[in-house]
Amino acid sequence: MAIFTIARRTKFFYYGNKRGFVNGNDMDDNDSKYLALAIEKAEESVLAGGFPAGAVIVSDGVVVGSGISVGNLIDDPTAHSETVAIRDACSKLGASDLTGATLYASLQPCAMCLAASVWANVSRIVYACAKEKVSDDYYGRVSLVVDPDVAIRLDHVSEMESDVVSLVEKWEEMQETSGR
Ligand SMILES: [Zn+2]
Fold this sequence. Notes:
There is one protein chain. This protein is an alpha/beta fold. The chain has helices at 2-10, 31-47, 81-93, 111-119, 148-151, 161-177, and strands spanning 51-59, 62-69, 102-107, 124-129, 153-156. It has a five-stranded mixed beta sheet. The longest helix has 17 residues, at 31-47. The structure holds zinc ion.
């Protein structure tokens, strides 16, 4: 229901390429605001020693969960920023069903996070940086096996893409400096 409302409303406020659309999807008025929060979480993740990815989950205009990507520090390969944000939101809401919620991610979610979003009934995913903009290594071992058109509306809003690419490059420099 909410998705139809948003789609209808944004037709009157179609931003086109001015706001950085690439997929031709309608963009919600608040997408930029919440994507910026996801990118802040990605910066927080790098500062904590994790991977340059961050995510927030928004339901009814409220941030109900957030996550950084520090699976390397807590010995949990399933702890990506998106799965951490889903767990955070479900824990705070006391529910396993996030119908109506939107997941905002700095980087395009991997297959695991996309599937986790489907299991959580996340209604929409918005991401800032497409996987083509970063190394294949970040996605290489699992291709996108979930057809997002079936279950989740997946929107790429590219206006902050260069910020995410810069952060990833900064992180890669840090990896080199630390001798990895
Ligand atoms: Zn992931």
